[in-house]
Design a protein that fits this description.
2 copies of one chain form a homodimer.
Chain A (H helix, E strand, L loop, with lengths): L7 E3 L5 E3 L4 H22 L18 H4 L3 H16 L3 H16 L9 H5 L14 H19 L3 H16 L16 H12 L2 H13 L6 H8 L31 H17 L3 H17 L31 H18 L2 H15 L17 E2 L14 H10 L6 E4 L2 E4 L5 E7 L2 E9 L6 E8 L3 E8 L7 E5 L2 E2 L9 E8 L4 E6 L3 E6 L9 E6 L2 E6 L11 E3 L1 H6 L2 E5 L6 E12 L8 E2 L4 E11 L11 E2 L2 E3 L1
Helix pairs in contact in A: 1-3, 1-15, 3-4, 3-6, 3-15, 6-7, 6-8, 8-9, 8-11, 9-11, 11-12, 11-13, 13-14
């Protein structure tokens, strides 16, 4: 990257209408099932009525209740996105009611947090490290921006602008202000969005202050702990790495601590690098990106292996079965990479984004839309199963807002033209060079690599079409109006076709999508001798239900069979429509083993027909074993 | 088994003098290093001064302090065994001082427990489920018996006989007595020993009462919980299986709950079956034995995979790296099998005993004698390392008493003759048919399978010599005074040679001891495709220190290489003297892999020279990776 200014601008999701078998049904399920389901759960768990400010709660309260305001915020953000593409008066009425209720809870000084208004008003802003006050505020700012953009109604936006004004008064570098920042990054990226929605640069500066102040000494979390009468050393996580505040962000080289916090902060860093043309910030983020993508990311785009800190541990520590890989963390990974992508249009960021979206993110929600995974392991003994809700329900509304706005990941524009990042069957209307360009994609992607792209233009226009060549794609073919094009990807991994595009022009782009055998870096402990099946961006897994409920590690495969004899078939009526891979493996045959627990004789083996399904749709049938990394035979 | 009466009688360890390179140095280290080390730690942690009854302790107290009396008890038992074979006036003086101090803490009514005398006298006998009062008493009874047998001094024995009298008054089936029993079995087996030492049959009956009462309804632990004002359902373990009291012992079919508790109870069940000729009790124990040995035992004789309950989980749940396999549990396994063996002389019990002793038991102590493992996993990432002491220091003195009395596992006598169970270089003087028979074994066992056995007899005697053919032994040869014998093992797995034995008779018995590749039952999850190296009773492992510190799972081996080309060499100066196995494997060579975390290309492999060492001596050098179950190449 040569500049810290974003050269690309994402095309908003509102410009994209999915017409495919992958996203369109998921967005419909999200709208019809997931959003009402989450709202019901929010009501049942008192997260809506909390804004009546008349609840009772023990002190100390469970942390999930303290930051409970963030859950309706994310739901309202998701609902607003849905309203933006699918107007729905009934849903809009509920959203309005919730917005009014939330606004009614705002204090005269602009403060707005139910827990610290009702239960512990004397503790307001007293524990930024642990109590998520700014995190909740940040999610509401995002919700308010979404609500405003979807409905044009300013009331919620104005309320959270007042809230931001209040925070900007309390915190900052000036005399009389506190130099604090939230233990759970989120407000930083939200303030950038609030700045864009309101034009008030004070929010941008506040975001920059929060990011720049992080890790400064004397440490704010030490100071506030002592003010509470607590020894700073009593902090359970033992290190401020947990909240990415052990060192200033520009000195951080590895991605550390709580994974969601890390990627939310990195997202804000990317945004601020652009806003302030701050190369040091972008370089710092890119350094962590490098560490993450070459050392600390699961094949599925899951991040944060450890339950202990819901986050990162050591380089190459990526155990499959005990993977934490929180759904929210992959969502954050996707959004951070989406931001990084806009600087120079580098495909490597879409590779990470795509890995996350089509695997460890969508695995977070069931196909029918009302059951969720918080933790996304790459192997299961059958003890994992999606559930309707969590004590800490951060993931469901996070998935909902992501699916509702999935269209935003597809396209960008730049001074010279149009960028296609992710492929999907859709019609989009994109503002480019002063006119509206209609783009229609016909493709079965991600189940097939052939994309037919048609342009609708009121008048011819010369621009560059940038087509991403995914990292997984080793060969492709391209034609424009039937004429084969000999074009190779540039340094950023995109094909660039510059011409005077005319109405009705058709680009046919076929990415070869063979079934591949994938290995992990040999430094990843416990994945030695194992191989995974991947096709295009889709990581596959075996499920017990397709293999007679045997222990899946009894199965072994030859990598050469995966690439030479395994077959793929798109099944429109199976698991919501999925390309299923079948092939032959070997299985240990315990039938002649007998009753001995150990013996000096190898167990027999026999052939077995294997069925591999996309990881993102595992556990949509009866619960059982699941395994991504297969034993090589 | 056709009778519930023991047909064999163990030859006491005092009759056996080790003259070998395996046990003799271990017993010497135990005497010279381990016993003083433990005593020092007991003093440092206030477990000796506790008997001055003037300590202060918070309420509620950590459970490890509540049952702290059991630690000096086991140490005194170990020290007494040592005195029995190695008189040592200095050690005897310390033992006497400790005994006097303990006796001085006895209450007028016979009660003797420091915690419930000093800290919570009002809670005496109020929580049998959790508080280990009888467990501590049981260990002191064992210590007192050992002390009496070693020194002839009755004072400690008399004190704990009074203690047992007190308990027998409080607990039992009669009106005015409570029908309670200890949550941690131990007193049951101790009371049998106390009965043998004192001749007082009341102790035997009390033991039987405790065993028979276990699991009866209404449940004693429910009743006592309610008396304490606690809801029985609040019991953390959720099931009385944890303490083997969910159902009556005769109805229990699987070995469940806390592993040490399980095997201590089963030991008492074996003893009581014999004492009362109670076939139902023996059958119940044998049923659990079958479940344990065919479903729930590690290759090393470790038992109890889970840290959660320090115990058993499900059939075939034997993960290697997270194995709990507490040292004390394997000690209990060994002692229980030693009891079961005496019924009919079945080699299967020695197979389990031997597996435990030479692997998961001796791994509990370092070769230099002052560092211990509590947990004995079969794979380590390098995060395990022996330590001098534990907050819960049950294992160190348990190892010490076991090593000090190891001679007891070797021989038994029966009406018809002499039984050799474990082989070891030693001289023994055994009472048989009214005369003293001298037996001398010359062997490098367990490092070699050749045993030369010489008899010393004042006059010829006709008896049957029963020689065990270990379960691991597929072929052997036998000669008497140079004349080859064609004899096959009987149903119990022993060779029987009946003759008029004469002074100077020599039996040469050679068990072939090839290097073997061993597999686990295919139902053991996560061991699929893995193989272990075993030779004779010794399970081998790889250590990082012998392989350049690479990740050991990068190594793969061919089972056919293990059995055909791997070599064994006894190295007298390596790891305390050990047979080391070497051979060629393959290793993943990451040097050409590059920086990618995942790629569609297999990593290179190359040959590697492997060094496998006995599992029981792992972690005696620098800490690092260790692995028993190797990946098959």
């Amino acid at each position: 990257m040569t500049s810290a200014k974003k050269q690309l601008t994402p095309v908003p999701f509102t410009a994209v209408r999915f017409e495919d078998a992958f996203w369109a049904p998921r967005i419909e399920v999200n709208r019809k099932v997931t959003l009402p389901h989450i709202y019901k759960k929010l009501e049942e768990t008192g997260r809506i009525s909390a804004y009546d400010l008349n609840f009772q709660r023990p002190v100390p309260s469970p942390i999930v209740l303290i930051f409970g305001d963030s859950d309706p915020a994310k739901w309202l953000e998701a609902a607003s996105y849905s309203l933006a593409t699918h107007p729905d008066p009934e849903l809009e009425a509920i959203v309005d009611r919730v917005a009014d209720k939330v606004i009614s809870a705002q204090q005269p000084d602009g403060y707005l947090n139910t827990h610290f208004t009702v239960t512990q008003p004397e503790m307001r802003w007293k524990n930024l490290r642990d109590w998520h006050e700014m995190y909740c505020a940040g999610h509401w700012m995002e919700g308010a921006v979404a609500h405003y953009e979807a409905t044009g109604k300013r009331k919620l936006l104005d309320a959270f602008a007042r809230n931001a004004d209040h925070i900007a008064k309390e915190f900052g570098p000036n005399p009389g202000q506190r130099r604090g920042y939230c233990g759970h990054p989120e407000i930083e990226l939200a303030l950038v969005r609030l700045y864009h929605a309101t034009g008030n640069r004070a929010y941008l500066d506040l975001s920059k202050f929060f990011v720049d102040e992080r890790g400064a000494r004397p440490h704010y979390y030490d100071l506030e702990a002592r003010e509470r009468g607590e020894a700073p050393a009593k902090f359970w996580a033992k290190t401020y790495d947990y909240c990415q505040a052990e060192v200033p962000v520009r000195e951080q080289s590895k991605v550390v601590g709580h994974a969601v916090r890390a990627v939310y902060l990195l997202t804000a860093m990317a945004d601020l690098a652009d806003e302030y043309n701050d190369e040091s910030l972008l370089k710092a983020a890119d350094r962590q990106w490098d560490n993450l993508v070459t050392r600390r990311m699961y094949l599925t785009g899951g991040i944060g292996p450890s339950q202990h800190n819901e986050g990162f541990t050591e380089d190459y520590d990526l155990p499959d079965e005990t993977a934490y890989a929180e759904t929210c963390a992959t969502i954050g990974l996707v959004n951070w990479n989406h931001r990084m992508l806009q600087f120079a249009g580098e495909s490597r960021f879409v590779d990470a984004m795509e890995r996350g979206i089509y695997n460890g993110l969508l695995s977070g929600v069931s196909l029918e839309g009302s059951n969720f995974l918080y933790v996304n392991p790459l192997s299961s003994s059958g003890n994992r199963h999606r559930v309707p809700w969590f004590e800490c329900p951060c993931c469901p509304p996070n998935v909902a807002r992501t699916v509702a706005s999935a269209g935003k990941y597809l396209y960008s524009t730049s001074a010279d033209g149009l960028w296609l990042h992710l492929y999907a069957g859709n019609s989009a209307e994109i503002k480019l060079g002063g006119q509206s360009v209609k783009v229609k994609q016909e493709t079965l992607y991600p189940w097939d690599g052939a994309v037919k792209l048609s342009f609708g233009l009121a008048q011819p226009q010369t621009f560059t079409l940038h087509l991403r060549v995914p990292g997984w794609c080793k060969s492709f073919s391209l034609s424009v109006n039937g004429a084969a094009q000999d074009v190779q990807p540039g340094a950023g991994g995109y094909l660039a076709i510059t011409r005077a595009w005319q109405d009705g022009d058709v680009v046919t782009y076929t990415m070869d999508m063979p079934i591949e055998a994938v290995w992990a870096n040999p430094q990843v402990r416990l994945l030695e001798g194992r191989v995974a099946i991947q096709r295009g961006p889709i990581v596959y897994c075996l499920e017990g239900v397709d293999h007679g409920g045997i222990l899946l590690d009894q199965i072994s495969v030859k990598a050469s069979d995966i690439t030479s004899s395994f077959k793929v078939e798109y099944k429109p009526d199976f698991l919501g429509g999925a390309a299923v891979i079948t092939g032959q493996g070997r299985v240990i045959d315990g039938s002649s083993w007998g009753d001995a627990l150990y013996q000096a004789k190898a167990p027999a083996e026999k052939d077995i027909q294997l069925t591999a399904i996309p990881y993102c749709v595992w556990d949509n049938r009866e619960p059982g074993e699941m395994r991504v990394w297969l034993r090589q035979g």
